DNA sequence: ACCTGAACACCGTTCAAGT
DNA sequence: ACCTGAACACCGTTCAAGT
């Protein structure tokens, strides 16, 4: 590679030519840092030290950028899943699938904007197809009929890829003062009771009322257990 | 205002004054007809026969329009859920919840753009809170502890509101010819096997390979069964 | 082959002006 | 009180022109 100046080191390095790969990695970096709404063609160009129109030599259009960004994240997921420690599915398909899904989830937690984008993409992504093919293979090795494996894909849905399926985004949930808290208890007595119950268990307060990881695993285990029950029943 | 022509009668009717309610109902109509991406302030104004800037007298900004649109759909869901025929939860909480969720799903199927929008909204919507409060109340009446009801909300996730959680959007899935089909069988042997198996059961072809309603109910029943098992075990 | 500047057709939104 | 036209700061994208 060619020599570079201090400025190059710090900001851009125009010497290494632009490429699709470099554009997409910059897009992921931009979304990680500033959020998905900041990912515009103009800001992306700025991120790689080029004018906006230059991007069109490496990607067809913005849609292609979003597809590419999804691709990068999915590749990251596939790598994480491949390296996840898990028993062979022939011995314990539930543990095998569980480990893979939790590995996928770890990746998504590093790109919080990704689930929304992945969910919006309706086009069949080859990487996603390959992933679901692996899941079906795992289930087959675990003794599933093709038919029940099909059911399983639908039950798991995007959870198979580690999607959190959260109820709400955390934050901005606390009532401002005791008055509004009381008002809330009036309007939503059941939720208020649930919250009070949780506080009783954990006197530190409502902190950790929803432990995302715990909830994710509880849901996952319930689903896997239901699937195992049907598999064993020969469904 | 000036006298009007026949065209006025047919398209707009400026006589009934603009209102927040009228703007939001027009927005839902526009999204239903042309898709969510067509819902711009300018086109929405056109839909109600007014200039874009007039909208700002009735809604704060576009974000408020989207919030309002969500509100309209949620109101529709709440009405459908309220009118759903269901046993009292004290007698059969599973049937009670199942009927309500399927009623909610019916509404969402009439506004196919709504799940994406509802999913993107992270702010706590009062109507959603009220709905989840009702679900917790139902579970309580069915014998749930607050703690397990809390778990239940997370397991159900947006499925409690009738979200389909589909794997892919239908369409554009068929391989173009036999060659690519064979190629697909090579790359994704498990999915190919699954598809072949389904074709065997239903010789009419791959039509209805994924019966959305069936899959939704299968998943829902599996989840409800897992919850009932935990409730009965006194979790 | 790769990059660019100017331009176009769209956005959401502000503001001063109309009635 | 309600609506409007012109304008601003942004989009994605096209196109002809540069090297």
From TrEMBL, chains A, B:
GO BP terms: namely: negative regulation of DNA-templated transcription; response to antibiotic
Q: Which UniProt keywords apply?
A: DNA-binding, Repressor, Transcription, Transcription regulation
MF (Gene Ontology): DNA-binding transcription factor activity; transcription cis-regulatory region binding
The answer to whether the entry has keyword Membrane is no
Q: Which InterPro entries match?
A: Homeodomain-like_sf, HTH-type_TetR-like_transc_reg, HTH_TetR, Repressor_TetR_C, Tet_transcr_reg_TetR, Tet_transcr_reg_TetR-rel_C_sf
Ranges annotated as DNA-binding: 40-59
Q: Which residues form the HTH tetR-type domain?
A: 17-77
Spell out the protein name for this chain: AcrR family transcriptional regulator
Organism encoding this protein: Actinomadura luteofluorescens
Spell out the Pfam families in the cross-references.
TetR_C_1, TetR_N
User: Would I find Cell membrane among this entry's keywords?
Assistant: no
